[in-house]
């Protein structure tokens, strides 16, 4: 694929030009290390490095054009330079044009919210596929562009706009009719504009709780950025699927002007919702209920753990039934085969006498849904091992500790992603919320996550249960000097085998 620079930059405001007036572009890049011959290179300012400092490396690697937002010390006459107000926000319209606006050739469902996004995206993909529709998806955990699902190798739930439009174009080429995109607040924020040129047909909001204030500044801004998904969908007169159990649902309903709004609510007696659950039955490994909707009922039987999955299934079913104009009954045979996302409520059994569950929960909202659901199912003591990410939302740290303190008998705090922060100081901030626990008795601060797991397992007795939280599917723990490889489930299995003698 090759496009002229002038053809793909017609929709952006260019403040200054230098060098060649045009160039033939064969690719887009924003990392000089990954730049190839014929690329348009975007010089992006970042937290730890500035892409403007690597323009010459990108040119040496083959870049034939550069988008930048500050004057450069050197301009080569054979290179086309475009100075814009913001390099990052310019990536989206340029990427959309370069890849021939792929979202317009697909039915696109966007899923936003604080918790449950990846699971809802996965359920939508599985249900659409089960109906015989070819579907791609982008999520925190995995990508699928029309073939096999692969691990999301970016440390971003929503990657940069160049990656998104490239993936969508691959879906179109593979014959996909649908795409499901996990649409995060970072991706929807005008400051990043990663999703600004996606044409959405449906928008889903799962819930809202305290998260990412280090980026958004206030809860109001956090919610407003998420509401952009509904504003964008409204422009296309799409469908808005809203959780009316969330106290902020009116904000999203207001942003969905132009949409056909559909509500869901899993609480008993919530007759005002369009999609609702009746007669929820739960065991430690399954959930069943009757899904009620305007077009009829369906029996939902899930071989999945976690009461919160009722909301995720309602959200996915509402979006799919309304978009495709089908009855919920058509989905009934597909529900039992749905699989959980990696790192979400995964039981780990190596023959031990206590329960071990791995989950990605790392926000106050997720904790408030998870702990009340698990607590009644545990016959012994409930343990939790978690922390909070470094260089991220500071306010939520004691809140996480306080929620765990309310429901858990024993709390073990261990490194999650301390990044450049002092690991023990970070754990102490989380521990400040554990007011009813005593250090050394039922509250333990152990930086090394593997050693923390080993210690927690050594304390556990028959019928106890431990929730290993915050890492889920992630493949590393990030420290000041970089990431260290990590697989939560595998580390847990390794330590359990050691404990039960299976590893000998």
Please give a handful of descriptors for the protein shown.
23% strand; six-stranded mixed β-sheet; eleven-stranded mixed β-sheet; alpha/beta; 504 residues
Ordered list of secondary-structure elements with their pairings:
Blueprint (H helix, E strand, L loop, with lengths): L2 E2 H4 L5 E6 L4 E2 L1 E3 L9 E4 L12 H6 L4 E4 L11 E5 L2 H12 L8 E6 L4 H14 L4 E4 L3 E3 L5 E2 L9 H13 L4 E5 L2 H4 L13 E4 L7 H4 L2 H17 L3 E5 L5 H7 L4 E6 L9 E9 L2 E8 L2 E7 L6 H16 L21 E2 L7 E5 L4 H11 L7 E5 L9 H12 L2 E4 L9 H9 L11 E3 L3 H11 L5 E5 L6 E4 L2 E4 L2 H13 L4
Parallel strand pairs: 4-5, 5-6, 6-7, 8-12, 8-13, 9-12, 13-14, 14-15, 15-16, 20-24, 21-22, 21-24, 22-23
Antiparallel strand pairs: 1-3, 2-7, 9-10, 10-11, 16-17, 17-18, 19-20, 25-26
What does this structure look like?
There is one protein chain. The chain is α/β, with parallel strands linked by helices. The protein is built from 15 helices and 26 strands. The strands form five sheets. Strands 11-10-9-12-8-13-14-15-16-17-18 form an eleven-stranded mixed β-sheet, sandwiched between helices. A six-stranded mixed β-sheet has the order 19-20-24-21-22-23, sandwiched between helices. It is globular, with a radius of gyration of 24 Å. The model has no long low-confidence stretch (mean pLDDT 92).
């Amino acid at each position: 694929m090759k496009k002229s620079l002038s053809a793909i930059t017609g929709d952006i405001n260019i403040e200054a030009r230098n060098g060649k007036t045009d160039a033939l572009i064969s690719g887009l890049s924003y990392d000089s290390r990954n730049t190839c011959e014929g690329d348009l290179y975007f010089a992006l300012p970042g937290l730890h490095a500035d892409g403007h400092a690597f323009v010459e490396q990108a040119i040496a690697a083959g870049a034939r054009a550069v988008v930048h937002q500050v004057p450069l010390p050197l301009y080569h006459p054979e290179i086309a330079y475009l100075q814009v107000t913001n390099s990052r926000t310019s990536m989206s319209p340029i990427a959309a044009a370069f890849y021939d606006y792929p979202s317009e050739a697909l039915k696109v469902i966007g899923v936003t919210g604080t918790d449950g996004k990846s699971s809802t995206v996965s359920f939508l993909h599985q249900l659409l596929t089960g109906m015989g529709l070819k579907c791609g998806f982008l999520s925190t955990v995995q990508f699928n562009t029309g073939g096999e699902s692969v691990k999301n190798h970016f440390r971003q739930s929503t990657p940069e706009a160049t990656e998104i439009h490239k993936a969508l174009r691959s879906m179109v080429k593979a014959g996909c009719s649908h795409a499901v995109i996990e649409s995060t607040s970072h991706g929807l924020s005008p400051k990043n504009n990663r999703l600004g040129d996606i044409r959405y047909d449906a928008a889903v909001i799962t819930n809202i709780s305290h998260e990412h204030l280090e980026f958004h500044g206030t809860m109001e801004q956090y919610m407003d950025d998420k509401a952009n998904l509904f504003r964008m969908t409204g422009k296309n007169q799409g469908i808005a699927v809203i959780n009316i159990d969330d106290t902020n649902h009116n904000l999203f309903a207001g942003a969905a002007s132009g949409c056909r709004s559909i509500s869901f609510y899993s609480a008993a007696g919530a007759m005002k919702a369009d999609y609702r659950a009746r007669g929820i039955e739960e065991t430690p490994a399954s959930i069943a209920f009757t899904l009620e909707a305007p077009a009829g009922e369906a029996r939902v039987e899930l071989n999945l753990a976690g009461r919160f999955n009722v909301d995720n299934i309602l959200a996915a079913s509402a979006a799919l039934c309304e978009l495709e104009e089908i009855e919920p009954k058509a989905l009934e045979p597909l529900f039992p085969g749905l699989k959980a996302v990696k790192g979400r409520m995964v039981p780990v059994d190596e023959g031990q006498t206590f329960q071990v569950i791995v989950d990605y929960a790392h926000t106050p909202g997720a904790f408030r849904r998870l702990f009340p659901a698990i607590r009644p199912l545990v016959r012994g003591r409930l343990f939790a091992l978690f922390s909070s990410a470094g260089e991220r939302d500071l306010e939520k740290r004691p809140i996480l500790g306080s929620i765990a303190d309310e429901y858990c008998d024993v709390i073990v705090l261990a490194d999650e992603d301390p990044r450049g922060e002092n690991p023990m100081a970070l754990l102490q901030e989380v521990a400040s919320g554990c007011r009813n626990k005593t250090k050394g008795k039922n509250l333990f601060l152990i930086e090394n996550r593997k050693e923390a797991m080993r210690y927690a397992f050594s304390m556990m007795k028959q019928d106890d249960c431990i929730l290993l939280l915050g890492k889920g599917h992630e493949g590393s723990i990030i420290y000041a000097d970089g990431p260290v490889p990590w697989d939560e489930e595998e580390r847990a299995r390794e330590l359990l085998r050691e404990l039960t003698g299976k590893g000998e």
